[in-house]
Design a protein that fits this description.
Elements lengths: L4 H14 L2 E4 L3 H39 L3 E3 H7 L2 H15 L7 H9 L2 H17 L5 E3 L2
Antiparallel strand pairs: 1-2, 1-3
Helix pairs in contact: 1-3, 1-5, 4-6
Length: about 140
C-alpha cells in the first residue's frame, strides 16, 4: 500500500492535540539582536561600563521577549515543508506499516484503539520534534 502522507499527518495532529502538545518557538536571533543593540547603545552613552550594562539589560529584555512562545504541535506539523513531513512520515510508517487503512479516520481509530501503538507513534513524534526540529515540547494548556 502506498504511504499516504496526509493520513499520517492527520494521525500525528490528532495524537498531539489529544495530548495537548505545544512546541517552543525559538527566536534566539531576536534576543541576540536586542542584546547587541542595547550593548551598542550602552557603549555610545557610557563607554566600556555602558557596554556591560547595556548588554546585561538588553540580554534580559531579549530573553523576556523570546520566552514562553509556544505553538500547538498540530499547527507546526501542518506548516512543515513537505520534505520534513516525508521524513516524519517515514519514521512513523515504520511503526504502523502492518496496519491496513482506507482513510485518515480509520488510521486514527486503529492507532488510538491500541495504547501500545499510540505510545510508539507519540514517542516517534516527540523524538522527531526534539531531535530534528530541535524544539522543546510542553504539555497541557
Amino acid at each position: 500500500m502506498p504511504v499516504r502522507i496526509n493520513d499520517v499527518m492527520k494521525l500525528l495532529c490528532h495524537i498531539s492535540e489529544q495530548q495537548k502538545m505545544k512546541v517552543a518557538i525559538k527566536h534566539s536571533g531576536r534576543g541576540a539582536l536586542m542584546a547587541g543593540a542595547a550593548a551598542f547603545l550602552g557603549g555610545l552613552m557610557g563607554g566600556p561600563p555602558g557596554i556591560a550594562i547595556g548588554g546585561a539589560v538588553g540580554g534580559l529584555f531579549g530573553a523576556w521577549m523570546t520566552s514562553g512562545q509556544f505553538k500547538p504541535l498540530p499547527q507546526i506539523i501542518m506548516e512543515m515543508p513537505v520534505i520534513e513531513q516525508q521524513k516524519l512520515c517515514d519514521q512513523v510508517y515504520a511503526i504502523i506499516r502492518s496496519l491496513d487503512w482506507t482513510d485518515a479516520t480509520q488510521l486514527i481509530l486503529l492507532v488510538t484503539g491500541n495504547a501500545a501503538l499510540q505510545q510508539k507513534v507519540a514517542a516517534a513524534l516527540i523524538s522527531y520534534v526534539t531531535q530534528e526540529l530541535r524544539a522543546e515540547i510542553q504539555y497541557g494548556d
